[in-house]
Amino acid sequence: MGPLTLFTALVLSLCCHFQCASAWTVNNFLMTGPKAFLTYASSVQVGARSGIQECKHQFRWERWNCPESTLQLSTHNGLRSATRETSFVHAISAAGVMYTLTKNCSMGDFDNCGCDDSRIGQTGGSGWIWGGCSDNVALGEKISKQFVDALEDGHDSRAAVNLHNNEAGRLAVKATMRKACKCHGVSGSCSIQTCWMQLAEFREVGNYLKMKHEQAKKLEMDKKPARAGNSADTRGAIAHAFRGIPQTELVYLEDSPDYCVKNQSVGFQGTEGRECLKGDKNMSQWEKKSCRRLCYECGLRVVEKRVEVVSSCNCKFYWCCTVKCEKCTQVVTKYYCTRYTTGRKPHNQTKRRHRLRRGRL
Ligand SMILES: *[C@@H]1O[C@H](CO)[C@@H](O)[C@H](O)[C@H]1NC(C)=O
Ligand SMILES: *[C@@H]1O[C@H](CO)[C@@H](O)[C@H](O)[C@H]1NC(C)=O
Ligand SMILES: *[C@@H]1O[C@H](CO)[C@@H](O)[C@H](O)[C@H]1NC(C)=O
Ligand SMILES: *[C@@H]1O[C@H](CO)[C@@H](O)[C@H](O)[C@H]1NC(C)=O
Predict the structure, then answer these.
(1) 46 lines ligand 1 (CB under 6 A)
(2) Three-state SS for 270?
(3) Does residue 118 belong to any structural domain of this protein?
(4) Are 11 and 29 within 8 A, CB to CB?
């Protein structure tokens, strides 16, 4: 595979994630030269993918659940929406790329980067000095900018919003970094500690950006003049709209469509058929609300499905050395959103129980 083929593959796959329009410049990537490109390309791809995986996790019990189809379809129509959800996709992808590259540096995967040793040996605070391997975000940040921001070829408000959200994603990686320390001193007295800055788990970056998604700010733009006017006017209008919005906050331009219903033009299937959770298990607030948000509030009802799960159980240890287990069949109840069948009243036990539950909500 020649450099350009691999290059094109990455570009296309990133394109899917970032909803970029079909026409965009390959030249942006080549500025650093094909060799530098190839060094980082696979890590960039891994990073972008981990961003999308995290997106799917964070939105698992939401109406919009980060489906591949909403990320891809827009590529084909050249339709690029800038909703609250797209803002999250941009931020988490830029963060994923920066995060992966930074981990790569700490692991010694690249020749030209490693731990941040600039402060090693210096006093950090009372009772501790800098030591260990501080994660060095500089290269990851730079490569994330070069690769991810290069996907924006326009100079309109949409491009400005996407770039802003990419940057918010990278800031999230820095904002969630933590100081980790190790004790030293006679017999673990911890009279002196060495500390270093390390990346949080990527899950934590996801949680942080999910919160930013909830607080995302809508950018008020005059749409008409920006399109027809000269570029100085456009830049002025964009700068004006961004005034007072901190770089850490996610921004969007358009209200989200109704994610309850199937919408062909945004490639969204609606919530019919989606699984939701019930029961008094140890659930997060999102899980607890899932049936209400996905089914009831979307005018759907919940059906129970009983699924048999076979697992090992009653294991006994026999001297020596075998473990024998029985096979147990467990019936697990799962819940799914389904449409009301018009004209027929729910009349059987299962259905009545659901109605009672619904009444409680
Ligand atoms: C960077 O890290 C990712 C994830 O850990 C890994 O898949 C990838 O191979 C690494 N890149 C290099 C060049 O080692
Ligand atoms: C589909 O989404 C588009 C874009 O948000 C919106 O304009 C349109 O009204 C939606 N269609 C339906 C059927 O909800
Ligand atoms: C519920 O989850 C929390 C946090 O995940 C945990 O600390 C707590 O022990 C759990 N409680 C039960 C009853 O499992
Ligand atoms: C009662 O309703 C449930 C849920 O729709 C369905 O799965 C079940 O087959 C029905 N039972 C009878 C006896 O109709």
Answers:
(1) yes
(2) coil
(3) no
(4) yes
pLDDT at 71 (0 to 100): 74
**Which two tokens mark 185?**
């001193």
Stretch 278-292: mean pLDDT: 88
Which CATH number goes with the domain that contains 317?
3.30.2460.20
Q: Which of 266, 268, 269, 298 to mutate to test the pocket of ligand 2 (most atoms within 8 A of CB)?
A: 266
**Mean of the per-residue pLDDT values of the chain:** 83
Using the predicted structure, report yes or no on whether residue 5 has a pLDDT greater than 50: no
Pairing of strands 322-338, 275-276: antiparallel
Q: In this structure, what token pair is assigned to residue 15?
A: 């394109």
Ligand nearest to the backbone CA of 285: 3
- CB distance 303 to ligand 4 below 6 Å: yes
Mean pLDDT of all residues in 340-347: 64
**Residue 109 CB–ligand 1 contact under 6 Å:** yes
Q: Going by CA atoms, what residue is nearest to atom 8 of ligand 1?
A: 43
Nearest residue by C-alpha to atom 2 in ligand 2 = 257
DSSP 331: E
Single residue among 241, 264, 287 that ends a domain in this structure: 264
